[in-house]
Amino acid sequence: MTDFNGWLMPLQYTSITEEHQRVRQAAGLFDLGHMGRIRLRGPDRIDFAQRMTTVDVAGTEEGGVSYGFLCNDRGGIIDDVTIYRAGDYVFLVVNSANRLKVLDWLNSNRAANNVEIEDATETLGMIAIQGPQAEAILQKETDFPLGSIGYYRFGVTIVSTTKMLISRTGYTGEDGFEMYMGSLYCERVWEALLKRGGQHGLVPVGLGARDTLRLEAAMPLYGNELSETITPFDAGLRKFVNLKKPDFVGREALIERSQAQHEPRRLCCLVMEERSIPRKGYKVFAQDMRIGEVTSGTFSPTLGQGIAMAYLDIIYAQKGNRVAVEIRGKRYPARVVQRPFYSRRRE
Amino acid sequence: MELPSDLRYLKTHEWARRDGAEVTVGVTEYAVEALERDIVFVELPAVHSQVKQGEPFGVIEAVKAVYDLYSPVTGRVAEINEALANDPGVVGRSPFGEGWMIRVEMVDPSEFDQLLTADQYRTTIESEEAKH
Fold first, then answer.
1. Hey, are the CB atoms on A12 and B85 less than 8 Å from each other?
2. Is this complex's ipTM strictly greater than 0.85?
3. pTM, two decimal places
4. In Å, how far is B97's CA from the nearest CA of chain A?
């Protein structure tokens, strides 16, 4: 167990590599209680969410989920979030490390909006089930036709005798669901799913594999690929910024940024050519010149190679380009590849 | 945990087995348990390079972290376990056997006698555990 922003979380239950492979081949169960869960209520909740995020919340149907950002007025990322448009509330799921920062930010930007900002992190729990068997396992625990919940959509229904909000979303690159329920009921849902899913290969999965899975799917992590000095455009996440909607915090800066002739650098995916493992902070070189730095790195269980994400000077950021990563004083060859490293087979 | 009594140990969890003038080096089951069998890479020195007692000769990498490997004796690397390049996991499966790492030609055989015995090493592990 490891302390994670004040939450005691398991890094792994058995082995990071085994848990990772299980999610890709069958299914894994994740306890995500540490993430921040915020509810916006009141007559101005939509206007407020519209003003504070890069997502067109007003244009999203009820039952829809969006991924986007809270930006500062320079377009820098305060947090990356998933936003759920429910009936009489908007639900935000934020990174564990940023929860208090986001609450402060929302509260200090409330202005004249008639909106209630509720920190529901302690009253709600969050569990995810991810993998090719996720839907089959979960379907045995509910009468609700899970096939009717499309990608980035959610429903509110009863699963394992517990009322919950369930969305087809995740952070692994596999099909799966994220579930939110009263925190008193989490343990019962967890036990029921493990019992039901055991014969399908379901295992509990810790934060270690959560990181290797998301990295293979080239999904960014706040604190690594994203920060307050990085805009969504730098990170290659332009499509999660809606510049057409009316004013929101950071809009002007982002418009300017989107019109810039040259991006100075780009977030790239690197694969190591020899058996070597890149890690956060390691320097990247091309022809003896320092061209960037690794933001996240690991040994990919699926590819059997070292993989990394790194911001590289734009000239070197082309797919197929050869670079070198400095590991403990020695430089190892790597190649820029198209993201993501791994994509699941879709039927 | 089984600790072969014919081996000597370092408190940094390496073991040494003496074969005449040569010493075979690996890491103990205790070290491997701490890495939770997620060993993905082992970096070894080149054959003929020099190693020194108490100084790092290589690195073992798990998914989450990198750890230095310390040499129990001073001398020349006579042989390295090439199998680890393609299958570092063997260190986890057989830390005292097929997971051996390097063989060193000792310059000073008395260094071997300075190493911890199995009982002494067991005591250091137990006091480390007591701290947690």
1. no
2. no
3. 0.91
4. 22
